[in-house]
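Board notes (copied after class):
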Amino acid sequence: MICPSYGKKNRINTYCANAYSDLTICHIIRHIGGVTIKSEHEIQNEILLELSKSGTTVCRSNAGKVKTKDGRTIALFPKGWPDITGTIHKTGQILLIEVKTKTGKLRPEQKRFAEFIKKYVPNAAYGVARSVEDALDIVDRGIEHDRKMERH
């Protein structure tokens, strides 16, 4: 199958979704033993698309460092930073979502980040999402937490 955005043939099933005229996201789905297994990348893309329609502004957060072709090193977010960063429009809260597959586990630096954010930024809407529904629940819990804080 040919992915229109990259024009390359792939051995696995690929499809592309045009969410916006200037944004094309390729989704990779693996089929193992008759069961569809979504990759973390696939889950992230689904979450980003749905959250962008659900009262949030979100973006993919890349962590670590990259080397450019000319040899420069660019520092991105620190290791452990969640995959998705954004804000909830209704409350102005920061939204931080770590995306994992159904069987994915947090790495030690991701666990440290979770502890840090819960301790020092308690009003942040933070959580681990394995599906779009999980991500929407994180947003809803963030909004509810903000309402409770306003009452006190």
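Comment from the instructor: The radius of gyration is 17 Å. The helical segments are 40-51, 108-120, 132-151.
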